[in-house]
Design goal:
five-stranded mixed sheet; 18 helices; alpha/beta; elongated
């Protein structure tokens, strides 16, 4: 039976308007405004607003909305603000208390209280910003259920636009920016690139076709997490001595003999050349690895290369945590040269070596088979670099600076 507005409009009290209240809330759920819904059920808009938002009592406090009195009480965890806390916020705001004071009284962060007021407050009669605790509780409860439909799934126009441009091999970031240019005034056609990635990668959402993920430049159908450097597991957990324990004299570059080492990798990761850079002079020595970079081969090649250096130039070696240095203890025993390891994901701790590797790519471009170079060719490249003037050395060459450091002063 359809609802019919009562013909007798004389005041009858709140308790006699059960049917009107039920119909009013049904219309509001369908998207009608407060004024439209009140007109349809035959009540004054102020009465309807009191049903929905609560009434301001003579004591200055707010009476709960009608539907809140009939609703089941929900138990919230400490993670979310409770109805009691929202009532406290509303009372203290009327007393002109500051947000930090309210947060301290509730034992919450000031940003939590500020965000609550901003998200769940509203304009009163279009002019004054007000915070109503029962309305705020209702809004928060409506947002809480999970899972929520994604924005791309809710808007067919947006979904078709994103899918069309993914098929044209546009990146999600390009699509997100182009949406702003094509639809400058249509907020419904706005989406971030992260939302597009989630629609592609998150299982079971179904917002975009799974095969579209292959149109991405990575070609991956699953997201690869980016681990933070301090959470990475060390490749060699045994007998590693970290750079923090390296002698202080190695850091100030005053004394020669402290080296930084690394590899430059060739085509298909199947070949490599070892690079050693002396920290004081930036003198370069290249390590020949014709048979690969397994730990045993790396150990033998380093022992052979370092063995040609004078004793005063064999103080320390700093390396990253590459698995090729798994036999570093045997190298240290053979050469009396301790090895120190950088922190994970911290290439700046071997800055001179990283800079030199960039210079070496002029001679050994990426994608080159590095195993084809002979020992003599490596020595020629190193000699050319060591005879090149360097700004950081006051335009001296590394060879000149090293010779000066090794010459005893009278």
């Amino acid at each position: 039976m359809e609802f019919e507005a009562r013909k007798d409009r004389r005041p009858q009290g709140r308790k006699r308007l059960h049917a009107e209240r039920g119909e009013y809330f049904r219309l509001v759920q369908q998207g009608y405004s407060n004024a439209e819904a009140a007109k349809r059920v035959g009540v004054h808009p102020r009465t309807a607003r009191g049903w929905r938002n609560g009434r301001l009592l003579n004591s200055g406090r707010v009476a709960p909305p009608v539907r809140s009195q009939r609703a089941a009480v929900t138990v919230s965890s400490g993670r979310y603000l409770s109805e009691r806390e929202r009532i406290h916020i509303a009372d203290r705001l009327r007393e002109k208390a500051s947000i930090r004071t309210i947060a301290a009284e509730l034992g919450r962060s000031p940003s939590t209280v500020s965000r609550e007021i901003r998200r769940n407050g509203a304009l009163w009669r279009g002019t004054e910003w007000t915070y109503r605790p029962y309305v705020a509780e209702s809004r928060a409860a409506a947002r809480r259920p999970r899972p929520k439909p994604g924005k791309i799934d809710r808007c067919p126009r947006l979904r078709d636009y994103v899918q069309e441009h993914l098929e044209r091999r546009w990146s999600p970031e390009q699509i997100a920016h182009q949406l702003r240019r094509d639809f400058p005034d249509d907020l419904e056609m706005r989406v971030t690139h992260e939302t597009i990635y989630q629609a592609l990668y998150v299982q079971g959402r179904g917002e975009l076709r799974r095969e579209l993920a292959r149109s991405l430049r990575t070609g991956r159908t699953m997201r690869r997490p980016h681990r933070q450097s301090f959470k990475r597991q060390p490749r060699m957990s045994k007998d590693m001595v970290m750079i923090s324990d390296r002698p202080a004299e190695a850091a100030d570059r005053a004394i020669p003999g402290h080296w930084e080492g690394d590899l430059i990798i060739g085509m298909a990761n199947k070949s490599a050349i070892g690079t050693l850079v002396e920290r004081s002079s930036r003198f370069v020595t290249l390590v020949h690895l014709p048979n690969g970079r397994r730990p045993s081969e790396m150990r033998d090649a380093l022992i052979e290369t370092v063995g040609t250096l004078p004793a005063q130039l064999r103080r320390t070696l700093t390396w990253d945590q590459g698995s090729e240095m798994a036999m570093h203890k045997q190298f240290s025993v053979a050469t009396d040269m301790p090895v120190y390891f950088c922190d994970p994901g911290s290439p700046w701790q071997r800055g001179s070596n990283e800079n030199t590797n960039g210079l070496l790519r002029q001679y050994f471009p990426k994608g080159t088979d590095l195993a084809r170079y002979t020992r003599q060719e490596l020595d020629e490249v190193a000699a050319e670099l060591n005879s090149r003037p360097r700004k950081t050395l006051g335009w001296e060459t590394p060879a000149e600076r090293l010779a000066k450091l090794l010459t005893p002063t009278s």
